[in-house]
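Lab notebook, bench 4. Still working through the backlog of constructs that have no structural model yet. Next entry is a single chain of 187 residues. Request: give me the structure tokens for it.
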Amino acid sequence: MNKDHFLQQLRASLKRLPDAELTDIVQDYEEYFTFGLEEGKSEAEIAASLGSPSQIAKEILADYHLEKVTTSATTGNIFRALWAVIGLGFFNLVIVLGPAIGLAALIFSGWVVGISLLASPLLVLLEVILHPSGFVLFNLFISFVFCGLGYFISLGMLYVTKLAVKGFVRYLNFNASLVKGGLKRDE
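Model written out:
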């Protein structure tokens, strides 16, 4: 593979990046080729030493999306980072997607329980409207207890959701660094 073919494949694989970022990355790889040619290597040797342009692009996209989700943890950014990390390797499909689905299900069920308990007084009022003769003051009292419990569960879920998002982003960063070449320890 020659320099032009390598850079063309790299550009095609990174087309989702902003233009400025794409230009910087391509310039960096052009410099690799320039330095390699000055050392007497052929373009094919340089391209072989760099590796596959598509794998390089997957790693760059994963880094880009992980950096973006670290600065702004929106749902869209989290999903883009999730798919970018999964794209690093097939094995990541099980290792990353499994915990993501489990965590999302746990958070979703917590929010459903909290909101359902918050809505319990409305259900008692609906029962009074539909069956006025069946009104029991005890039901209203219990619904207020459940509403209070739902309030505390919802507050707890707010904290748990923020904590889970931060933790999952750290897990994605850890997994990406592990897949890209192992953990490097500074000792």
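Notes after review: Residues 89-187 form one domain. The chain has a mean pLDDT of 83. Flag for follow-up if needed.
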